[in-house]
Specification:
Chain A: It is found in: Cell membrane. Chain A: Keywords: Cell membrane, Membrane, Transmembrane, Transmembrane helix, Transport. Chain A: InterPro entries: BPD_transp_1_N, MetI-like, MetI-like_sf. Chain A: This is ABC transporter permease. The complex is a heterotrimer of chains A (319), B (568) and C (294). Chain A has 14 helices and 2 strands. With 319 residues, chain A is mainly α. Chain A has a domain of 177 residues: MetI-like fold (Orthogonal Bundle), CATH 1.10.3720.10. Chain B has 568 residues and is α/β, with parallel strands linked by helices. Chain B is globular, with a radius of gyration of 25 Å. Chain C is an all-alpha fold and 294 residues long. Chain C has a domain of 199 residues: MetI-like fold. Helices cover 72% and strands 0% of the residues of chain C. Chain C contains 13 helices and no strands. In chain C, helix 5 crosses helix 8, helix 5 crosses helix 12 and helix 11 packs antiparallel against helix 13. Chain C is elongated. The chains are: A mainly alpha (319), B alpha/beta (568), C mainly alpha (294).
């Protein structure tokens, strides 16, 4: 009952957010020099061609009418056609998105698996040398532009040490991507670095907060040892707020993928977006923005739902 | 005082505790010595900051890392001071265990209560998970949780405050400890629940001969529960003795002053209603023409649809000019909500509210502001009531800036200075920030701010419940004195029946958002007509061990007759 | 036990909260170090050119790609600019644009969050959905789309960066406003007929100052980092002007030919300054004892 009400409300909110995103994308489309006609017909189109196109597509009608029309085409899964690649944007994204997802999900997993124990360790060793060193390292990891970090990694691991190849796995299918795991290491590490930095900080402060909670004292008064209290109580309680932050980190992961894919020549959506930007391929650019935003909204929604499942208080709609 | 120290379950000798803080070392406890014998309850009493809780935590070695401990503490012969975490972990939960003040936060919110109890069992005894779970259910039954099999799988948030405290107690007694340290175990609870928890603790301690160190500020609880009493002041014990001696024939001057300040609920004979407050004879309070504030059939709902909570249901009450009306009830009774409705802070979903004869819901803009200029407000929390970024003088001047914008600065300053003097604050405090003041001083500043416009109505929501009894007494006296001078009416919200009895001419008893009964204080609190008010009064412990013993026996009889009474 | 500390502390020494914050900040070595780094870099970029004057407008093809040493302590770049001078020259843009964009983002976010939080109800709901939508569109993608449309000057850059990064501070300030508006002193003011304007101006905003200052510090750190991305995305300031990000991306191709001096100084400068602002933000948050990002 409560969870149903929560889900309905949350999904409606997500839909509202997606609607706002479509408005933003629609506005961007119309902010283009020459408007959507230029975007679709390409930079070589003449003024007459554009006028004819505008009339044909109803683009000389009022903006609200056009927006409704635009929403209609979106609902049919039509994101327009790339004039640089002469292919449907939806198909293009359909091919590239899974690879980007592989990269981002792997980065997120690696990031979390390192960040969470690291953050707890820091909290337990608060203000000890370990804490300072890890804090310093996470500041550096957070402050390094991904492209610079990637470059340094490439120089060190492919030129000096020669452990990994400098290119990400090529090929169109996912099977080909996984066929060469060594080639995935550097892209994944580059994508995970700032995540490790951010989430170890979150975990550190969440753990510190929980260590000061009354229930820790109760457990100690019952004869539980430090390690057991951390494992049984503090860990789970600290994890819930961190999971909630995960949703908001989805756009950052995609942003990272944009740079990482370009740097390692990994044929995912980021690279598609990058080359579209070089050739002013607007339908592809805006299609990607739309898809990534929807992915972010869905990611945030999932993180929220997961948090509700972990935390019984919120599940019952209390806290 | 006890020669045979070998049998003491808790021995504390020359204990000293100092906390290292941002502002330097703060000594909290000095040269404290005390003993608890098996089966005996020693109450450690004192005001906030006296160091009583620090002693309790030191007994189990639970002080935070910034505490420096000296002296000797031994539990069941095991040294606590200087011992490693291993020794202490073996001791805690087995030889000695603890019950804390705040049941709302004492349990892990994400772990089922059965598991939390089982954890304590398995910390000390090599039993299987299944056996521990079965024992946990048994323990829940012992502490009076209904349907323990089902409740063992509950999360803490699914239980009421009283039930959570029972779970904490179940954890504490899981391994039949020889010493139980209870740090303000009932302070966060309503009186009826407090009575049940105290009964439970007494029963458990008597059954197993457990020694109890009870830390409390409440003299009623001491009278109800303790065999011996130690009184703490500024980190030192100033008086120790049997409960009858200390409570009825105190020797130390401080103990005498402390006891004199405790508001006593008169339970027999004619009550001197309004003994502190003696305002001018109120114009007939029942006269419907002249009430200062009037709620008629007011209902309030919070939230919408599935999550809606009924906070008030058809509540009617009036406050006449110059009259003090006490609004009493337990937590969740809606007494604060009713006060907020009277102030226009909460919009009722039904019924009518009139302030000085005008309908508050229909008045807007300037007229509404003029209406509200006749109201003064004092709220419960002395810390949250004042903006920490303002000086005391700025806080008090705020209502003048809102309603007397044409007043000249010099005049305003003198008005503020005059008001501060009236509430008994020194001139030099005017430039200070609220953070530099004590709780009692802060509430006086709130009071000065509330009265600077000379309002016709003062709404006071638990104005003294966060204060120590001696401070509470002086603040109440100031309110009463100013009420005599200025003649304002007062809507006084409190959970403390004794305070209301002394302070209010009429009383309104609320329960779960409904008025249970109302009438003149004397009649209502001495001869209550409703069963609920009777139970409420019976649950209040009075600070006289002899009287309290008799009241407890009577309560026992009546609850036995009435079945299980209210459950926590 | 915390109650013991709270009640016992004032007795030990009456000290104003402001001075306590300064003291706590001063004890945080990372934060003080960060402050020193920021001051040093400001001196380096704005006073440095007076001590070490170089020509950063004209190319000098006789002095191309010289390794560090002699007349050029950090060598020269592909068109013969002195790298040390260029580091000062580019740093001016990076620091100014970063500071301005970070502050702009904080101002916009503060106003938006304060209005949403104080108004509540459907106004809040609509305003926060807009923030959610903004967060859902990754900033780098928006910047790349903008770069495909136009090439802005430094002022345009500030506005664009400010407009993609006001969302996080708006959420923080909204949360703060929600807490503050239910504080007893605000309720007391409302109960005696005080206006919304007074509640916001006299109580809510002054009490949010520490949250806002902390948010602004982190925002500046993020903005400087974002400026570094902007050139990489092809949106940066146009030559002969440059910034650290521009120097870094211009030098990327040189990385394989062992001309490390073209990227390492600029890269280190970015990392150091961003780290420094983050450390200051961290120290301020702990000193003011406010919630902010971890």
């Amino acid at each position: 009952m409560d969870i149903l009400w929560f889900l309905t409300r949350r999904v409606l909110q997500a839909l509202a957010v997606i609607l706002i995103v479509t408005v933003v994308v629609f506005c961007l489309l119309h902010a283009l020099p020459g408007g959507p006609a230029r975007g679709i017909l390409g930079p070589q189109a003449t003024a007459q061609q554009i006028a004819a196109f505008n009339h044909e597509q109803g683009l000389d009608r009022s903006l609200p009418v056009q927006y409704v029309y635009y929403l209609g085409t979106l609902l049919q899964g039509d994101l327009g056609t790339s004039y640089a690649l002469n292919e449907g944007v939806a198909q293009l994204i359909g091919q590239r998105l899974p690879k980007t997802l592989v990269l981002t999900v792997l980065s997120a997993l690696v990031g979390l698996l390192l960040a969470i124990p690291l953050g707890m360790w820091q909290a337990v060793r608060r203000n000890k040398p370990v804490d300072y060193v890890v804090t310093g390292l996470s500041f550096v990891a957070y402050s390094t532009p991904v492209y610079f970090l990637g470059l340094v990694l490439v120089l060190v691991f492919t030129q000096v040490l020669r452990w990994f190849p400098s290119q990400a796995p090529q090929g169109d299918s996912l099977a080909q991507v996984f066929a060469d795991p060594a080639a995935l290491v550097l892209p994944v590490v580059s994508g995970a670095a700032s995540m490790i930095a951010v989430f170890s900080r979150y975990m550190r402060s969440a753990t510190l907060e929980n260590l000061a909670e009354d229930y820790v004292r109760t457990a100690r008064a019952g004869g539980s040892r430090r390690g057991a209290i951390l494992r049984r109580h503090v860990f789970r309680n600290s994890l819930t707020p961190v999971v909630a932050m995960l949703g908001y980190y989805v756009p950052v992961l995609f942003g990272g993928a944009l740079v990482v894919e370009q740097l390692f020549n990994y044929p995912g959506m980021g690279l598609l977006f990058w080359s579209a930007a070089q050739s002013s391929d607007y339908p592809v650019l805006l299609g990607c923005v739309l898809v990534i935003s929807v992915a972010t909204v869905v990611g945030t929604l999932l993180a929220d739902v997961v948090q509700r499942v972990i935390d019984p208080r919120v599940k019952a709609g209390r806290a | 005082m006890n020669a045979n120290t070998g049998t003491d379950i808790l021995e504390v000798e020359g204990l000293g505790v100092t906390f290292a803080t941002d502002t330097g070392d703060v000594p909290a406890v000095r040269e404290v010595s005390l003993q608890v014998r098996p089966g005996e309850t020693l109450a450690l009493v004192g005001e906030s900051g006296s160091g009583k809780s620090t002693v309790a935590l030191a007994a189990l070695g639970l002080l935070p890392g910034n505490a420096h401990v000296s002296g000797r503490v031994a539990v069941g012969g095991t040294e606590v001071v200087g011992s490693g975490e291993d020794t202490l972990a073996r001791l805690r939960g087995r030889t000695a265990s603890m019950v804390f003040q705040e049941p709302a936060t004492a349990l892990d919110p994400l772990t089922r209560i059965g598991r939390q109890i089982a954890e304590v069992i398995r910390n000390h005894r090599p039993v299987s998970a299944r056996e521990a779970a079965a024992e946990a259910v048994e323990l829940l039954r012992r502490v009076g949780i209904p349907e323990p099999e089902r409740r063992a799988a509950a999360f803490p948030f699914q239980l009421s405050g009283g039930q959570r405290q029972r779970v904490v107690i179940a954890m504490a007694i899981a391994n039949s400890p020889e010493l139980l340290v209870a740090d303000e175990p009932t302070t966060a609870l309503d009186v009826t629940v407090q009575a049940e928890i105290l009964d439970l603790l007494r029963e458990l301690a008597a059954d197993s001969g457990t020694g109890v160190l009870l830390v409390t500020h409440n003299m009623g609880v001491v009278a109800d529960f303790a065999d011996r009493v130690a009184v703490m002041l500024h980190g030192e014990i100033v008086e120790t003795g049997p409960v009858e001696e200390v409570l009825l024939r105190p020797r130390h001057d401080y103990t005498r002053r402390l006891l004199a300040a405790v508001p006593r609920l008169t339970v027999t004979g004619p009550a001197q209603a309004g003994s502190t407050a003696a305002p001018p004879t109120p114009e007939d309070p029942t006269d419907p023409a002249s009430p200062v504030v009037r709620l008629r059939d007011v209902s309030v709902q919070f939230g919408h649809r599935a999550g809606a909570v009924r906070a008030l249901h058809e509540v009617s009450l009036t406050v006449g000019p110059g009259e003090t009306v006490g609004l009493v009830g337990e937590s969740g009774s809606g007494k604060s909500t009713a006060a907020r409705v009277a102030l226009g802070l909460v919009k009722p979903s039904g019924g009518a509210v009139s302030l000085f004869g005008a309908d508050l819901r229909r008045t807007r803009g300037r007229a509404r502001r003029r209406l509200l200029s006749g109201v003064g407000v004092v709220l419960q929390d002395p810390v949250a009531s004042l903006d920490a970024r303002m000086s005391v003088a700025q806080c008090v001047a705020e209502p003048l800036l809102v309603h007397r914008r044409d007043m000249r600065a010099a005049e305003r300053r003198s008005r503020v200075a005059d008001m501060l003097e009236r509430v008994g604050l020194e001139k030099k405090l005017a430039a200070r920030g609220p953070r530099e003041l004590s709780g009692g001083q802060r509430q006086r500043v709130s009071l000065a701010r509330a009265l600077v416009l000379e309002p016709r109505l003062l709404v006071a929501d638990e104005p003294t419940s966060a204060l120590d009894v001696r401070v509470q007494r002086t603040v109440l006296e100031v309110i009463a004195e100013l009420q005599r001078e200025l003649g304002f009416a007062c809507l006084f919200v409190s959970h403390d029946l004794a305070v209301v009895q002394q302070f209010a001419q009429r009383v309104v008893v609320l329960r779960a958002g409904e008025v249970v009964e109302q009438g003149p204080t004397g009649n209502t609190l001495l001869q209550p007509t409703s069963e609920y008010t009777r139970r409420l009064i019976a649950a209040v412990p009075v600070p006289d061990p002899v009287v309290q013993r008799r009241r407890r026996a009577e309560r026992g009889n009546s609850t036995a007759l009435a079945g299980r009474g209210v459950t926590a | 036990m915390s109650a013991v500390l709270r009640t016992a502390a004032p007795a030990a020494e009456a000290i104003s909260p402001h001075r306590l914050s300064v003291r706590r900040f001063a004890r945080n070595k990372l934060a003080v170090g960060g402050l020193a780094v920021v001051v040093l870099f400001l001196l380096f970029c704005f006073v440095g050119p007076l001590v070490w004057p170089t020509d950063q407008t004209h190319t000098d093809l006789t002095q191309v790609n010289l390794p560090p040493g002699g007349a050029h302590p950090l060598g020269t770049d592909a068109v013969g600019h002195d790298e040390l001078g260029r580091l000062m020259f580019g740093g001016k843009v990076s620091l100014l644009v970063g500071l301005a964009a970070g502050i702009l983002a904080t101002v916009v976010g503060t106003l938006w969050g304060a209005v949403a939080g104080y108004a509540g109800g459907w106004v809040d709901a609509v305003m926060m959905r807009i923030v959610d939508a903004g967060i859902a569109i990754p900033a780098l993608f928006i910047l790349l789309v903008v770069s495909a449309i136009t090439t802005p000057g430094p002022l345009g850059l500030i506005v664009i960066l400010g407009l993609v990064s006001w969302l996080v501070p708006s959420r923080l300030v909204r949360a703060e406003t929600l807490t503050l508006k239910s504080r007893d002193y605000v309720l007391t003011l409302r109960a005696i007929g005080g206006t919304h304007g007074r509640a916001i101006g006299r109580h809510i905003l002054p009490n949010s100052v520490s949250t806002i200052v902390v948010a602004a510090t982190f925002q500046v750190a993020d903005a400087i980092l974002l400026v570094a991305y902007v050139s990489y995305l092809g949106l940066g300031v146009q030559p002969p002007a440059t910034d650290w990000g521009g120097m870094l991306s211009a030098g990327l191709t040189a990385a394989y030919s062992e001309r490390w001096w073209l990227i390492v100084p600029a890269g280190l400068a970015i990392i150091l300054v961003v780290c420094a602002f983050n450390a200051i933000g961290d120290g301020l948050r702990d000193a003011f004892d406010v919630r902010g990002r971890a």
